[in-house]
Amino acid sequence: MQSHDQDALFGAEKKDIPLDFSTMSYTHLVEILVRYLQQKRYVVVLDDVWDIDLWKQIHVAFPDGRNGSRVMLATRKEDVASFSFGVEKLSSPC
User: Fold this and answer.
1) Spatial separation of the C-alpha atoms in residues 83 and 19, rounded to whole Å
2) Which residues pair with 73 in a beta bridge?
3) Separation of alpha carbons 38 and 42, rounded Å
4) What CA–CA distance (Å, rounded) separates 40 from 17?
5) What is the pLDDT confidence band of residue 47, given thresholds at 50, 70 and 90?
6) Which Gene3D superfamilies does UniProt cross-reference here (predicted)?
């Protein structure tokens, strides 16, 4: 992550920027991300997703503030592509 991005992310928390994200706990990282994204409109692209479990592990980090935010996944795996990820499928009019 670039320095100005880190400043914006941690500025929202009003704490010092850690030297290394790898030293932070998963829970702490999720809390920071949720607070940062809560009132924002964002687009996240996850490329080359191989496992449905990835979404199950990270979806809590993306708040649904009804701001028009989107998370897009790209995959070559049919089971991942056909999984609903919590999105309701529309019924066909036929």
Assistant:
1) 37
2) 46
3) 10
4) 21
5) very high
6) P-loop containing nucleotide triphosphate hydrolases
Q: Which residue has the tokens 């503030």?
A: 65
Give the C-alpha separation, 38 to 69, whole Å.
Answer: 10
Does the pLDDT value for residue 53 go beyond 80? yes
Rounded Cα distance between 28 and 14, Å, is 14
How large is the average pLDDT for residues 22-40? 84
CB under 8 Å to 32, separation ≥6 — which residues? 9, 10, 12, 13
> What is the mean predicted confidence (pLDDT) over 17-30?
76
How many Cβ atoms sit within 10 Å of the Cβ of residue 25? 8
